[in-house]
Amino acid sequence: MHNTKYVFVTGGVTSSLGKGIIAASLAKLLQERGFSVTIQKLDPYINIDPGTLNPYEHGECYVTDDGAETDLDLGHYERFLNIPTSQANNVTTGRIYQSVINKERKGEFLGKTVQVIPHITDEIKHRIQILGETGDYDIVITEIGGTVGDIESLPYVESVRQLLWEKGHENAIVIHLTLIPYLAAAGELKTKPTQHSVKMLMQSGVSPDILVCRTEHQISEDIKRKLALFCNVKQEDVIQSIDAETIYDVPNLMLDEGLDTVVLKKFNLVSKQEPKLTVWNEFLRKHKNPKHEVEIALIGKYIELQDSYKSITEAFIHAGSSHETKVNVRWIHSESLTPENFEELLKGVNGVLVAPGFGDRGIDGKIKAVQYARENKIPFFGICLGMQMAVIEFAKNVLGLVDAFSTEMKSDCKNPVINLMESQEKVTEKGGTMRLGAWDCTLVKGSRAHNAYQTENISERHRHRYEFNNEYLNQIELKGMKATGTNPKTGLVEVVEIPSHPWFVGVQYHPEYKSTVLKPHPLFVAFIKAALKQSNV
Ligand code: GLN
């Protein structure tokens, strides 16, 4: 039997310390050492998944190939590891309770009283071990969302305690991520909050094996000694995680600190090779030493929280590095774009990206941004709602269908160039009911998309309800916008382009989810190339 090792990552002191990045960096190093690794995130909220959450709550909703709507940390896992994740990689309290309650209704508990311990904790333990039981992974890293001490995290910490006991310390360990604040007035780094959070963890019966300490300043050996003494860890197991210029520096920082080595030591595992990070470091070198610069306008309605567009901004970084180009984003709120000011707000950009979204807020601004890019021959990239807006703008301003719209925003519109798929018409529940996950698409040879991908058959991830209305396809194509990608089975339009424009591409799917450090997404690479060309005009 495959002896999978388990690493649990907990967080203390405060949220937003970057557990996801630490988990992904450790996984990257272990992967470079020849181990197969995956990462899982347990989210303690009651929503079944983040699909129904407003992006202002937790940022972007990430989508996997198997159609799971997940936490944005899974995006980091994929970008770092270059391997796909799935529904099993993200579990929420809602999902745990849902399965326990479903079992109760089926009578599976044989008349027993159903309780947090053991029934909820058993379900959590089962979900943690699902990935290990596939036999595909040497090491599974499980990130426990939230902060130790939160009421909602308690069943998770208890499940970790049980698993540590059942599996033994050579098979399961805990990394606790904490903050070492710097008090400017005292000129000192303070360890007390870490001591308290470790104490809190210990009250639940869990002792950390490794402490990873977020800090703005170097942590001295003295401080490490102190932390080791108070927190029951060895001094070598106190790892500094100093603020980095970019998240992509963190694997190298963790390598220098020896996080991967101490983890392997605890597991009695011998590394097959030293981490080289060759491609990674080449990406970093180009990212940090750009020879060119472009400015891209990103038009969206959630721009107050930039995490809402995490995968898009990361895809810019990957594609930018491949061209040794710094991509500066000009964040433009779609609601702020008006017929009076759009030219002024968009002036000077080398590319326009109209972002995904839902509902009618800011729609007119998005349409104006498309018009600006189309008329001024500025490279344009429309993603999902952005593609739908490109079709609407073209129908309105080129075909002269002034009332063209999407039935999402105007259910009785006369020219629904974007409308609901038939299969969606009867859907009433919001959660998990969109067209989700990976779908095939066939590209037209010689199109911009085909040139970018260098292949005719692609598969990309979706998250939407509305579609290009094929009743308008002929009219639209006659006027110069072409459908250059379609689903081979359903005929649904996946990609539209305007061949007479320098680079105008709209995609119904979300290419940003599949961009990784090792494999920048071809459409982002092509878009940045077009923007670079535009910047030299
Ligand atoms: N609101 C649109 C739809 O449901 C687009 C969704 C998106 O941009 N992800 O079709």
UniProtKB/TrEMBL annotation:
Positions annotated to bind L-glutamine: 56, 357, 385-388, 408, 465
Any one GO CC term of the record: cytosol
GO biological process, one term: pyrimidine nucleobase biosynthetic process
Residues that coordinate or bind ATP: 16-21, 73, 244
Location of the CTP synthase N-terminal domain: 5-269
Residues binding CTP, per UniProt: 15, 150-152, 190-195, 226
Catalytic site: 384 (nucleophile), 510, 512
Pathway entry: Pyrimidine metabolism; CTP biosynthesis via de novo pathway; CTP from UDP: step 2/2
Keyword entries, A-Z: ATP-binding, Glutamine amidotransferase, Ligase, Magnesium, Metal-binding, Nucleotide-binding, Pyrimidine biosynthesis
Domain Glutamine amidotransferase: residue ranges: 305-529
Protein name: CTP synthase
